[in-house]
Amino acid sequence: MVRSASNVTSPGPRQLNGLISRAERAQELLALHRQHGHAFDRVNLATCWSKLGRVSAAERVWLQSDSGARLLALREQTTRQARSLEARGVSTTAHALAKLAIPAAWEHLWKELERAALARVSEFNPQGLANTAWAYATAGCAAPALFDAMAAEAAWRVHDFKPQELANTAWAFATAGIAAPALFDAIVAEAARRVHDFKSQELANTAWAFATAGIAAPSLFDAIVAEAARRVRDLSPQNLANMAWAFATAGIAAPSLFDAMAAEAARRVHDFKSQELANTAWAFATAGIAAPALFDAIVAEAARRVRDLSPQNLANMAWAFATAGIAAPVLFDAIAAEAARRVRESILRAWPTRRGPSPPLAAPHRRSLTRLRRRRHGACATSTHRTWPTWRGPSPPLVMPPRLFSTRLRRRQHGACATSAHRTWPTRRGPTPQLAMSPRLSSTQWRRRQHGACATSSLRNWPTRRGPLPLLAAPHRRSSTRLRRRRHGACATATLRT
Hints:
Layout: H1 13-22, H2 26-36, H3 42-52, H4 57-68, H5 72-81, H6 87-100, H7 107-119, H8 126-139, H9 144-155, H10 163-176, H11 181-193, H12 200-213, H13 218-230, H14 237-250, H15 255-267, H16 274-287, H17 292-304, H18 311-324, H19 329-350, H20 369-377, H21 381-387, H22 406-414, H23 418-424, H24 443-451, H25 455-461, H26 480-488, H27 491-497
Helix pairs in contact: 1-3, 3-6, 5-7, 6-7, 6-8, 8-10, 9-11, 10-12, 11-13, 12-13, 12-14, 13-15, 14-16, 15-17, 16-18, 17-19
């Protein structure tokens, strides 16, 4: 007997969970959801997200493409069922989302998971608390109410936390910038007592967390110093850089640890990433530790990889060597050349395409676009091009002399009074009159040249009812006081004044 299609049912939740657990690739998981997603319960959803969080890096990039469009159906179903998830399902789903680096457009799902976690925060085990805090800190989702609730719950259960969970919880609260003094105090006491159980990465993460949070924990840092100096060879390049940065930032004097890290970092400097090189140099310079072998190794490696350094890393590297007083002309020359190249590229990228191709920059670098346009078209070119409406056509060609405002141009052509004359001349009187006075001379200067310095006040005060203005025969550029002194003597001034 052949069964009809209507009688064909999907596997049960237990069978579905087995199929999801055996899937090895992201494509298989998504295919299972497309085929049986309508039958997924809360356990199936959490298991599916857990498996997606453990896919390879290449598959993770594939899932992230198109803003996670391939995960939209799974996201919508999870959002609808989020409040029905158990505490373990909430932490598993949030942890997977953070590892997949799901975009911020999924904020609604994060909010639903936060509401579900707040309702069940007392049901979380230590791993669930640590993973949920880590997930929200990694994703950069602001959830202050959830962090406060988890801090209160974790503070009195800190004895049940494993070393990794202690380190991850401290890292998460420091990264999220959440002030939780009771929780940090509890972690200090527990971590200092069990520091021998911490792995190398957990030691570095814990030190970094307390330095970032600005928590003074001398007992914890002293315990980390003794343990990390003994196991410095187990620290990865990232852990070495983070450990050095943490002790330098916290201002903890640990010469034995810095010496051990300097020797190890100098030996493995080729394995450091560009940011780790910059952070290590910054940390040793800040701590005031003389490590010539390490600085020499960083010089050779950083000069070779200067193009990989971000602008912040370039600045930190230059600052570190200047602060440490290390002569490194090769590195400084490489940093200067790279910085100049990036400045030129940023200027060319900022040039608007509507003005045509980017001009050849003949002016020295470090000149802004505004100064460049002033040198080419005059200072008023900036405002003219900025305010010229597009409906009038392309911006007009500016033929005025370079670096001259329109006001200064009229002053050169007609004198300083041309500005006010042109501004106040009414349009009903006809076109603006031609001003025949000498170029580059204001009306005051012109009268002084023609009649002397006193001409200004005489002409200004001469009443019109007395007839035309008198001709002033005094030599030009001589004031009335100097004129009287030449004609009548120095006492004439006082006599005339009194």
